[in-house]
Every structure is written in structure tokens, then in C-alpha cells.
Amino acid sequence: MATIRALVVGVSDYSLIRQSNLPFCINDINAITKAFSKGLKVDLANITICGKNGIVFRSEIYCALQRIATVSEMDDILLVYFSGHGGTISDEHYLLLSDMLLKTQDLITCLEAISAKSKILFLDCCMAGDFSVENTAVFKIDETADEFAGKGYAVLASSNATQSSYRHPQKPISLFTSFLCEALTNTSLTREGKKSLYDIKKLLFLYLEIWNKNNPKKLQSPTYRANIGATIYFEVQDYHPYIVGNFFEETEKYVIYSVEPTHSSITKRYSVKVILKQPSSFEEISSLNQEIVDKVKTQDIYQNEIQAQRWRTKSANLIFCYFGLDESDINNSNYLCHTIWVDDTQDKEWWYRTGKNCEVINNIYFNFHSYYQLLKIFTEEHTGSKEKLVADTKAILSRMITLAEEVIALFNEFLNGIKDEGTFIIEMEKFIPEIDKLYIAEGNLDIPPDDLKEWSQYYTRLAAAIHDFTLFYNSEHIVKRTPENRKACMEWSIKQYYSDIEKIKSIDFEI
Length: 511
Fold this sequence. Notes:
Blueprint: E1 4-10, H1 24-40, E2 47-50, H2 58-71, E3 77-83, E4 86-89, E5 92-96, E6 101-103, H3 104-113, E7 118-124, H4 145-148, E8 152-157, H5 175-185, E9 194-196, H6 197-214, E10 223-226, E11 233-235, E12 249-250, E13 254-261, E14 269-276, H7 282-296, H8 305-311, E15 318-324, H9 327-331, E16 337-342, H10 348-351, E17 358-361, E18 364-368, H11 372-382, H12 386-415, H13 421-428, H14 432-443, H15 453-472, H16 483-507
Parallel strand pairs: 1-2, 1-3, 3-7, 7-8, 14-15
Antiparallel strand pairs: 4-5, 5-6, 8-10, 9-11, 12-13, 13-14, 15-16, 16-18, 17-18
Helix pairs in contact: 1-5, 5-6, 12-13, 12-14, 12-15, 14-15, 15-16
């Protein structure tokens, strides 16, 4: 598990260089230290603090970074926080320390050199947005998602390149630091025991957007730039997922391959996948179906504890059975037929509606899949080799992910207020044709063999998430959405993209 290390710097005493003191910066470092510990579970022993007495020399910062560099490992996360004076001189942004200036870009370069996989710099000072981040993340074809995700650095600044950063009007700390601490410690951001940098940044931007609406004379617009692959996830809670049960049974005539809970709020129901071990008539299948129903309807299999509390010990109201002839049929969702059984509490006339390819046999509703044999032949003829499919998928997705990172960087500049929406739409035009082409190519890949099915499905979902980027700021469809809707849809798609990469991290190791 990655170790999170932090360097917290707060400069309050500027008497040596005859600048105005900032006594509240001492409070900033205390507040952010608590927020790192509480919100991101950073061990206090791994937090280095400069400025407890208000004085910070440049040599002290570099010595602290050197000490951190010597103990940092490749999977570690490094957080660096600065609170104090900042400003731009001759087009270069500087952080003011107690003894001299420190060029912000030099600090970023220093962070880049540290071996920790993920680095985040938080800047709370005036004109903090006056910095640059070189390039965007590139997904290499021989790289795993785990190697890519979170690799690089990000800078989250309190203001844009021309704005002042203010003290909070009701608290003895900086405005930005106050909102940052709230975002870091907000428990509603935690999902499956993890909290993402993306969600922290988004909430922080929302806090300051509200501030700006209420305080138009003290505007403070945060700035975020990064070359990190995807985003960083912080493990902040022990997570014990609900274990979904299953039922498997093999008899002479059939195999109950899986029983999946599909319960609704008013009915307990299961979806059952069955492999027939020998050719059977539909009359015979109806008898087997009743036997399967009797075995399955009293099972206790649920997606979550809420379902378990609602339906535990109760018999199922509906059971859907899907019959195939081998495991490949199950994996490819290709079935001879599917059936429905309902108990007497249900509206059988509605559930057992007959029509083309539908019939009720022995009180079991059948839907016959006339395309079964054609689809089986098609699947066999178009199933690719594992090695070639992995190589082709990686070639397509490595490029799609790289393009996605470039699009996100442009979108961040739009959120930063550096680009207006019209400019962003024009710049998106150069990405849309290539993403479209790659998305079609991914959809035309061979059918994956059974042992690659799950891996391939994860990458297909990721390709779809990236393709969604092209839908909202596409000049052909721009009139179909409001600016607010475009922004919300794009942010949701980026979040989905990050989530998909996080899921792929674990499954990549199985290939």
C-alpha cells in the first residue's frame, strides 16, 4: 500500500524582507495538517511542517524535500502545501519566504524529480494560478492501468494569475485553505473506501464558485492543472464489500451455472443461467425448469444488505431461466430460449403474454431464440486469439486514453477560466474525428475468448466513456444542450472515465 507523505509550509513572519506579516498562516498549517490526517488518513509521523514559529527559509524547504526524497518509494503519494505571500515578477511567479523568493516553477521541477508516483502541490497565495504544467499523461502500449493511473503531478492553486487570495472573513485562516480543508474531510466523497483527487477538486471549485457569487468584489477563482494519468484515489476507510452469494449445482441433465439476484422493491426474483448437458425438447426443458425453480426459489442471494433484510427467508416471486448448451453460450449470452416462472401473487396474464416465438408449456413461459444457431456460428467464426486481441485492444485504448487526457487538460483550462466555451468547442474539433475512428475500431475487434471476456468488457466500457467526451462540446450538437448541461455531462463522463480506469487496475494483473 502506498505511503502518503506531506510537506506543509506556512510563512507568517516576513520581517527580514520587510513585507507585511501574515499571522493567520500559522493557523493554516495547523488546519491543513489536521485535514490531511483526518480526510486522507496521512500518518502524522509522515507530515513535515515548516513554519510553526512563522519563519521559513528557502534552505529549510529544500532540506525537507531532500529528506522526503530519500525515503520516498515508487508507489508513494507526496502532498506539498504552501501558505504565504506570492506574486508575479517579470512574468514569473514566486513564493515569498522569510528570507528570499522561491520561483514557483522551480519548486514544481523539484517535485517532479522526487520518485514518489503521485505529487500534488497546493498553493494558497496571491496570483497562484500563474504556473505551467508540462505536457499531459501518455498511456504507453506496454503499460498497465495501475502503472499509468496517478503517475505525475498536479497543482491546485487558490486563485488565478491576476487575483489576490484572501483571508476567511469569519475564520482565522485563509479562505482557500478553509474550503480545501472542508473538501478534504467531506465524508460524502468517499466511495468504496476511497476518495479521489477529482472529487476533492470539484467540490473545492464549487465552494469557491458559491463564494464568488456572494462576494463579487473579492473574486477568487481556483486553478487546477495536472499531467497525472487519470486521477489519484486515496484509501481512507476499510472497505468490506457485500459478498453476493451464488448457487451452483451439476446434475446428469443440466448445470445451474449461476443464480443472480434481480430483486425489485416489490418482488423477489432471480435470473438463472443453465447449461443443458444433453439435447432436450422444450417439453423436457419445462420439466427441468420446474425442478430448477424448486431448488432456487428459496435461496438467499442478494446484491446488498438492504435486499437481504427485505427478502431473507422469503420465497422468490419470479424466476427467469436462460438455457444454453455450453459455457461459451453463457459467456456470450446466447441462449436456446429463456423462460419465466411466476408464483400466484403475480399477474400471470401479463407475464405469460404469448406471441411470435412465445409459448406457455406446463405453466412455464417460453421465449424461443430462433437466432441461436446463427449467433453461435458467428461467434465461433469471429472469436479472436487472446494474444492478438490483447495487443489490438491495448493499441487502440492506449491512444484513446492519451487523447482523453489531452481533452481533460483543455476542459480544465475552460474550468480555470483561461478559455471560454467557444474556444474550447473549436479546440475539441481536432479530437473528435480520431476518437470516433478509434471507438469504431474497438467495436470492430474480434469477439474475445471466454477467458478474456471480462477484461475485454472493462476496456469496452472505458472506450465508451472516452467517446462520450465527444458528444457535449461537438459543434454539430451544441444547440441541443445548455451550457450548464454540457458542463455537468462532461464532468460526469470524466468521473466515469476515472472510475473505469480504477476498475481496470485490478483486472489488468489477470492477463
